[in-house]
Each structure stands twice: as structure tokens, then as C-alpha cells.
From TrEMBL:
Glucose-6-phosphate dehydrogenase assembly protein OpcA N-terminal domain location: 51-137
Top-rank taxon: Bacteria
Protein name: Glucose-6-phosphate dehydrogenase assembly protein OpcA N-terminal domain-containing protein
Record field: compositional bias (Low complexity): 142-152
Composition skew (Pro residues), residue ranges: 128-141
Annotated region (Disordered), positions in chain: 126-159
Amino acid sequence: MIITLSSTTSSKIAARLVKLREEGGAVALGRVLTLVVSAPPEHVERAVDAANDASREHPCRVLVVSPQPDGAADGPADGLDAEIRVGGDAGASEVIVLRPRGGARSELDSLVMPLLLPDAPIVTWWPASPPPSPRPTPSGPWPSGGSPTRSSAATRWTG
């Protein structure tokens, strides 16, 4: 099942995940990590497919962050569109695809933080090209230095 949320917020996405869990359509128990994927639009589907395959061995929450280029979406220039994928569209995980536009592209950490699984490691993956140093990037670990209990790893796409 894919649920599309237009012009939304991370709080609304989190609330929708809770509602899905209460309705029995998605289960968050047993997730071993949060996988944060920083992918350009052209790599999103391949990254989701790879994450879905990996989730069968390591159930996780997958957060795909794909900043949209200027003029890529209809509607307001600034904002956040999202998809929640559960069930057959998410492997053994739940997948949240975040598509920030305009000014929202500069606040990626604040979009991701409310959606992280509590008390679970965080792994960051750049399926296209990782930055030379992940430290200053909003997708990880975090510009402020983050929590000392959080971890990040970068892997270059080889497929």
C-alpha cells in the first residue's frame, strides 16, 4: 500500500504511521535500525528496491530523502510531499519517501528527526555519490554533531 501525502509535515507523517499501526496495517515492533537514504530523484526507486530486499534480513524503517529540484512539483515552491509505503510495497519494513521542495531542502535534519525509530541505530546510505565528508551534510550524521549513540555509514551504489 502506498499512501501519498502532499504539502505535509513530518508530524503529520508520524501521526499517519501511528494510525496505520493502530489499524493493524503496519507493525513497527522488531525494527533493528532506521535506514536514512539520501537519493536524487532518479535513484529513489532503485534505492527503495534495494532497501526492501535488505529489510527481509534486517527489518527497519527506511526514510528516503530526495530533495526536489526547483520547479519539479506542482503547487507551492516550498514544502514537503511524502509517500508512506507498507505491506507488499515495503518489503519487511516501512518506507517513507520525503520529497522536500524549496526552503524545506535546507532543513533535512528537521524533516528526518521526528521519523527516526527510538533507541535504534541510524545508518545513512547515499546510493548515488556520497559526500566527501558526511559531517556537514544534513542527512548525517547531523550538522550539530548529533547524539553520541547514533551512527552513520556511507555506501556507494554498486548495482
